[in-house]
Design goal:
single chain; 277 residues; alpha/beta; five-stranded parallel β-sheet; four-stranded antiparallel β-sheet; binds zinc ion; ATP-binding protein; DnaA_dom
């Protein structure tokens, strides 16, 4: 996290002696002990942030080395690196989505078609509708079909609430190598990315700081993914989402998008689960 600052006067003899100059300022990143920033090669750098970034880059490289570009390597990448609350969700497939009426049969057929469209044309997909209608289930199913059908696409499923909480946790733990820089790299490199449950944090009452963090994180991910397929699920419509986050994100979602409407699909969760809600 190198920071450029205004002109800083540096005594030549000090630069000659050490190659850098220590400043009396510290960075404002929370989560590591305060250390003085240094002026090095005409940049102002926090040595701790620098090391954290380097560590995460290294962790990411190690992750990728493990998954070569063979079909098998790519397939296992999906299972090993997807970010989920519960790994069992990755067992879902389109074929075990229970369809009881015409609406449900339609959405199931659409899911199969979408997997082909994602491979052929790098389409974005926006799946919206009420909780419990099986959006995450079909998102996983589509990604698994792409994962099996495509010879070159590396797929990743990411629960957005889980991702945000992992990044936040890493801010308070300087030894955690999987933090913001790591996840940014992971999510921007995936060829086909499923972002599950976007907007969930925003529709709850949260602080402005938390909202800004969510929006910035999403924006940075989508910005780094131009031209690649991203699939979204949300309990909100695209218009409702538009009221909660900025237009730059919405316009990226809408680019080359296929909508999948889960309204009027019955809640598929067990009754005991619904009563708890
Ligand atoms: Zn720092």
């Amino acid at each position: 996290m190198a920071m450029k600052m205004g002109s800083v006067k540096i005594p030549d003899e000090q630069i000659e002696r050490t190659g850098y100059i220590e400043l009396s300022e510290c960075c404002d990143v929370k989560g590591h002990e305060k250390v003085n920033m240094i002026h090095f090669h005409s940049e102002i750098i926090c040595p701790r942030c620098f090391l954290i970034d380097r560590g995460q880059e290294f962790a990411y490289k190690k992750t990728m080395e493990h998954f070569d570009n063979t079909a098998e390597g790519r397939r296992s990448f999906f299972y090993k690196n997807s970010i989920v609350h519960n790994k069992n969700i990755l067992d879902d497939g389109i074929k075990n989505y229970v369809n009881k009426d015409e609406k449900e049969s339609f959405i199931k057929r659409q899911a199969n078609q979408v997997a082909h469209d994602v491979i052929a044309d790098s389409r974005n997909v926006f799946m919206y509708g009420g909780a419990g209608t099986g959006k995450s289930h079909l998102l996983v199913g589509i990604l698994k079909n792409v994962n099996e059908l495509s010879t070159e696409k590396r797929c990743l499923f990411v629960s957005v609430p889980k991702l945000l909480s992992n990044i936040k946790k890493s801010f308070n733990d300087p030894t955690e190598l999987k933090g913001e820089a790591y996840y940014m790299k992971l999510l921007s490199d995936a060829d086909v990315l499923g972002l599950d449950d976007i907007g969930a944090e925003l529709s709850m009452n949260t602080t402005k700081q938390a909202t800004d963090f969510t929006i910035n994180t999403l924006y940075n991910v989508l910005n780094a993914r131009e031209g690649k397929s991203t699939l979204f699920t949300s309990n909100l419509t695209i218009e409702q989402l538009g009221n909660l986050m900025d237009e730059r994100i919405i316009s990226r979602i809408k680019t080359n998008v296929i909508y999948m409407d889960f309204n009027h699909i019955s809640d598929k969760r067990p009754i005991a689960y619904k009563l708890k809600q």
